[in-house]
Amino acid sequence: MVMAGLTQQGVFAAEKIDPALVPSVFAPESVPAHSISHLAGLVLAITGAIFVVVAGLLTYAVVRFRRRGNDDGTEPAQIYGSGPVEAAWTTVPFLIVVVLALTTARVIHEIQDARKPVAALDVQVIGHQWWWEFRYPKLGIVTANELHVPVSQGQDRLPTFLELRSADVVHSFWVPRLAGKTDLIPNKVNSMWIEPERPGLYLGQCAKYCGTQHAKMLLRVYVDTREDFDRWVKEQKQLAENDPTAAAGRLVFERTACINCHAVNGTVGNGRFGPDLTHLMGRATLGSGALTNSLEGLRAWIKSPEQFKPGVLMPAMNLNDADLDKLAAYLATLK
Amino acid sequence: MNGTLTTGDISGATALGSIAATEKTVFDHIHSWLVTVDHKRLGLMYIIYALVFFVVAGIEASLIRIQLAAPNNHFLSPQVFNQLFTMHGTTMVFLVGMPMIFGFANYLVPLMIGARDLAFPRLNAFGFWLSVFGGLLLYFSFIGGEGMTGAGSAPDVGWFAYAPLTGKAFSKGHSTDYWILGIMIGGFGSIATAANIITTILCMRCRGMTLAKMPLLAWLNLIMCGMVLIAVSPLTAAQIMLLLDRFAGSHFFDTQAGGSATLWMHFFWIFGHPEVYVLIIPAFAFASEIIPVFSRKAIFGYPVMVGATLAIAFVSLSVWAHHMFTIGMSSTSNTFFAVSTMMVGIPTGIKIFNWLGTMWGGKLRFDTPMLFSTAFLFQFLIAGLTGIMLAAAPFNWQLNDSYFVIAHFHFVLVGALIFMIFAAVYYWFPKATGRLLSERFGKWHFWLFLIGFHMTFVTMHIPGILGMPRRIYTYEAGRGWGIWNLICTIGVAFQVIGTLIFVINILLSLRKGRPAGNDPWDAWTLEWSTSSPPPEYNFAEIPAVKSRRPLWDIKHPSDPDWKYE
């Protein structure tokens, strides 16, 4: 609780920080994250009380029983132990553990065994080195790195259930303000759920070391109002933009190795090794958060991904400047 | 082997010592250390080996902290950063922690139980040299380990080396193989030494020293070595399986061919968690010897201390999956491991209370060993309490793999273990060398290290709570992590200076330290009854004891311990 206070105020004065974008576990905006922060509050209160008592006793002993300057050099009374005292300081911790264990068990059950409502939104999350693939099976949407989910407000509850898989190594999905983390493990299907109660952008990132660019496997979760979410779904379901002015760039895309890894719905590109680009310009970042998404950003990224994300699996395509311009211009039309 | 050596071998270790004394060339000195089977020399070599790697791992940590001091820093590439945290963790656990505790066990156990050496002196030397070879092999990877990033790359898979990142598909080259083999060979050494120490404690105690009259240090090392035997084998087994995956086409952890990533996690943590207690129990052992002497009182609740340690050892074998709360175990499993982990808190709390009980009503002398021990008590308390937070599985879903965890286990491994190792060095250095370490340097060392430690590791809890994951080589500005990381990094400078003073203190005191005499601390256990440094045979006459504090009995003939025990 003290931490929550700290994070909300003063500290941000120095570095220009928007508190809404600080992924603090004590600023929950989703049902499971709230349950956890309540439990955390109780645990902090109990452990805090233990600390005050024990550290107080230790400090008292250090001050009270230190050898004084006028010590006579005799040894103090030798006490070898005490049954009743030992019994007391065994029983009290035991009782504390019972309380903590029962509370913890309740919250584990509450979060993990929560029933999935029929209306819940399903999203498949697939971890890749080093980006996130999101698939909405009931809506037929495929996107990457930036998850859109509807808000769950008032009587109208609408949680999102995530099915977590990995295409390569172990990753972990962590957006602290929405829920605790759950790992994405190859050959294992995990699940978790979020129920965000306030629209906005929530930041997170991969929490399990997954290789060279673990640090730049960033996550953005947009919690949209119902209207915004429905509009977003409608846009995403459309075929890719086919702007005739960018036809030359589309040709470059279709004739280079781009299509081996990337898909653009309605073109020959149907690769799945890299992010789906059908609605690329609907996303704020490139390279899973490595840089801002814009025409210039796209061009720089395609020219040399390594510069922004050393070790990234996307190779530089060695295109000439003219082709680079055309390709970037085409990709920038993929609204 | 040359003729002289053979003669030496036949007539035992004593002859070797006298050769070194009569012929004074440097090579003879080195040779006598290389071939020694004396538990004290091997103990010291273990400790020096560990101190060297402590400095190496400290340099690695400092580089990591410089990189993280500010957002979007370009001091290190991600590849180098990943190697550094892998090597820092691996080094601190396997090349600092393990050899350090075995070094002290080697040196102290025979002296404290009134024996002339370990049960198997040659096995002891074998274990030590295996550990050395393992460590050097691991570090050779900096030159020879062709990894993801070409020639000469150290392992970069993290110290717990999760599958399938360690598979051939994701870890090309040989850096991971160096990690597997270096650690595995060190593990053989650990098993040999653990078996040796157990045998020594069970079979070679002096007359009168029943199990119930052993110094607590001997008890705790007995328990620690028992845990080594149980815990190291699963790691070795898993490493062999991983080698088979990498070279013989098996698929234990090869998820692309149906293998299991979680299997490695279980194998690793059923080693890894008991390993934490393997490292921390010797710290308890040092505290249980040092706190009574500097409080001038017998340890409070000796039988309870032994029982609590046994309880910790037993329960710690059933808590490993608390490292795995986020892997999607059933709610039943999560509850079991949360509750079993919290249970460890009970015997651990009992130990802290007993140390407090020992200090209560004493006359506390705050020489450097006691300063470090007192800091240990506070820091271990905090480590235990953050451990309870992490044991609450849902809270762990937030904190796991964040900087909060890093802060927590550095409170255990630095705040408790390293602080008690410093205490132990200050306490037993006069026994091993005949000279006291300087108290003035000692106090500088203590205060600088204490301030630096708390600046770094108290602060480090906060970025974890603010959502900063571990093992990221850089982070964006604007997340609120920058200022905390900067403070963490500044703290490192204090720790580095403190450690430098410590090293200088050792080097200066070796030559110029105040002569210690047999018993500089007015202590009570057998090692203080022999000369400093002790002769190769330890005791001219094997002692006989009647209580847990034989020297107390001698110093207070009218009021001996054995009347009360």
Explain the overall architecture:
The complex is a heterodimer of chains A (335) and B (565). Chain A is α+β, with helices and mostly antiparallel strands. Chain A has two domains: 20-65 and 83-224, Cupredoxins -  blue copper proteins (Immunoglobulin-like); 244-331, Immunoglobulin-like (Sandwich), CATH 2.60.40.420. Chain A has helices at 2-8, 31-64, 83-112, 226-237, 247-255, 258-261, 295-303, 305-308, 321-331; strands at 121-128, 131-136, 141-144, 146-150, 160-166, 171-173, 182-184, 190-194, 200-205, 218-224, 285-286, 291-292. In chain A, the strands form four sheets. Chain A has a five-stranded mixed sheet with strand order 3-2-1-5-8. In chain A, strands 4-10-9 form a three-stranded mixed sheet. In chain A, strands 6-7 form a two-stranded antiparallel ribbon. The two termini of chain A are 43 Å apart. Chain B is mainly α and 565 residues long. Chain B contains 17 helices and no strands. In chain B, 62% of the residues are buried. Residues 1-17 of chain B have low confidence and may be disordered. Chain B has helices at residues 3-11, 13-22, 26-34, 39-68, 78-112, 121-144, 175-203, 216-247, 261-295, 302-316, 331-359, 368-391, 393-399, 403-433, 439-465, 482-512, 550-555. Chain B has two domains: 1-35, no CATH class; 36-563, Cytochrome c oxidase-like, subunit I domain (Cytochrome C Oxidase, Chain A), CATH 1.20.210.
